Amino acid sequence: MTENLFTALSRYGVDAPGFVASTSALGAACTLAAAARPFRGRTAVAALGAGLLVQAGMYLHTTLHGKLRVWERELDALQLRGDERLLDLGCGRGAVLIGAARRLPRGRAVGVDLWATKDQSGNTPAATLANATAAGVRDRIEVHTADITELPFPDGDFDLVTSALVIHNIPTAPARLRAVDEALRVLRPGGRLLLADITPMVRRYAAHLGTGTVRDLGPAYWYGGPWLPVSMLELRKADEGLSGVRSGIDGPSG
Known about the structure:
The protein is an alpha/beta fold and 254 residues long. It has helices at residues 5-12, 17-36, 42-78, 95-101, 125-134, 173-185, 199-209; strands at 85-89, 108-113, 141-145, 158-164, 187-198, 213-216, 230-236. The two termini are 27 Å apart. Residues 87-194 form the Methyltransferase type domain.
């Protein structure tokens, strides 16, 4: 996941492409209007246009580079043995899935998605598998079309569950919490969950579960600015069930 911006765009696409396209278009329109001729409020319109373009630029940097760098760090920190079975919820075109598979020479990386292009440009199973082939990990990866609120896997099927900016796309709060519960259900006792999402959402997930650590992922994961930061919920599932806390990890924090 150390590709440059242009490679990342061709392989992994853009998150919520409609949002960044509309932000860029509005910013450009304001800037051009302010440059075209003098009028009352011209300075404010020019400032708005510049701000929107900066926001779009930061957004693109995050979706094409920043998030990949953050997930490299997070996956390295897991110190995987290499034989684990991993599930990536809402895998999209495979940025996290493929990064994990590179660390699982004797393991398996499974991705599930509904493949909505409004959530990620060019989002298809074929694109994900093509990216896995290009990365040399196709033999370790499988993908499924599945709703993450009703995962088609048995209890305790995975050593590790990951998710990157997916659960907030689910339209209702009860369904989002079902997805979090499903992530815990398919995790084996002692298994680990890494769930990255918009910070206020992550705090709600942690409060719902009553366990885990919430930590800010920093400016590299800002979608346009500090007003839309991303945090990580991390926990280890205890042997006695869903309510256990990973050894050494405190309760929810922000």
